[in-house]
Amino acid sequence: MDFKISCLLFIRNTKDEILMIKRNKTPNKGFWSPPGGKLNMSDGESPYECAKREALEETGVALEDKDLSLFGYVSEKSYESTTNWLMFLFDCTRVIQSLPKDIEEGIFRFFPREAISTLKIPPSDHQLVWPFFDKRKMGFWGVRADCRSSGSPKLSIEEFPV
pTM for the whole thing? Predict the structure, then answer.
């Protein structure tokens, strides 16, 4: 089974709305998710380097390390029965002023946090991503999700309070 490492970026505007992209490509084609992407592992890219590169490529925003706050990770065993994923979750502390231009990867929109659960988001994100985004200021979170069985993934949560 493939193993992939990625990052997600939680970028907000001046109204505290969260930037989301409706993906045109797999994985999660047709779903809304925060911008992000896979690490260039052959280049030895770090999660921070990936987050900065993806922010620039997808949104046109040039970030520095100080603009990013790593608040957790999600490890998914056998996501969609095809891939093991390790995702790093970054809160972007730099606010952006305007909506990025749509790209080949998808279209961008800002949404208030309370609206995100009503969007078509990857089903596992309801359990694995958004609850920990909401707790990001309380500490660092690690989520291990075993997706090998049908139904909801079996979760193990590691919490490192501030």
Answer: 0.92
